[in-house]
Amino acid sequence: MKATALAGSNIAFVKYWGALDPEAHLPLNNSISLTLDQANTLVTIEFSPHIGHDVVELEGRMAEGRVRARVVRFLDELRRLGGSGDHARVASKSTFPVATGLASSASLFAAMAVAGLAALGLAPSEREVTTIARLGSGSAARSVCGGWVEWVAGGRHEDSYAYTLRPADWWPLRDIIVIVSEAPKESPSLAGHAAARSSPCFLGRLARAHQHLALVRTAVLTRDLEALGTVGEEEALLLHAVTMTADPPALYWLPATVAVMRQVWQWRREGLPVYFTLDAGANVHVFTTPEHTPQIATSLCAIEGVQRTLVCQPGGAPVPGDVHLF
Length: 326
Ligand code: PMV
Fold this sequence. Notes:
2 domains; 9 helices; eight-stranded mixed sheet; 14 strands
């Protein structure tokens, strides 16, 4: 009745922003991401008749309020699937700062789905696990799969699933995560999805996302960094254009965010194969080839306001853990 799983976060090149169904996290467009190997969340879950109420300990602290309610809602879904009335104890530990726009909800709910289903003795298909993880956080569907992953929008629960386009070893790109802030972001993604439709840029972003899908699929299949990077940058800028012009607006960028983006453009003018993308936060993902990674990571650390970098490679699907968190 106790199980542990380790799942990687992911970074999207075609983004999910704005929902068809905000409760079931059904997106308006397919999205494509890369699962990351060094930005992980480890989750242990135990269901037991001896536990009096759900105990949710995230990153060493008892979760409260909205965050706890979201985890408990997901536990309810797992209990419904397993036909269990037991309360649960959950603990998580991540290798990167959470709630800072680095898709920590993706790795958290992917690991919770995998560990929770195992703890309940259930063994659904990977496709089913992606739909279940999606109920915790939309982007978590993609973190159930390894490598280059497409999430099919679907339109209803069973049809909105993720699958691996190409495995992690297909293309040895590096994602240098540039951490400019470890502070939890002020506007959570759920509020951002809800506000997105009020932006005058919303429909433009959606139309581009549909066009970008085929471009990114082809870029992944042909290992075309220029095509992938060009689209990934535009997707990030469109997403932020939507957040900035929505009601209520959200401006996630810090001075160092802008400095990193400008530096990436400068490097490209100098001929380096380097591109950025961002989720809904201040931290930046910088993509390049393995050869250029050490020098670029060192130079990024010298930019004022950059706290540290975390270099990731493509990562695999979640794995069961032998050592439990409690
Ligand atoms: O899964 P959510 O609700 O946290 O949404 C994540 C949205 C972005 O990270 C900004 C984009 C994406 O597709 O991952």
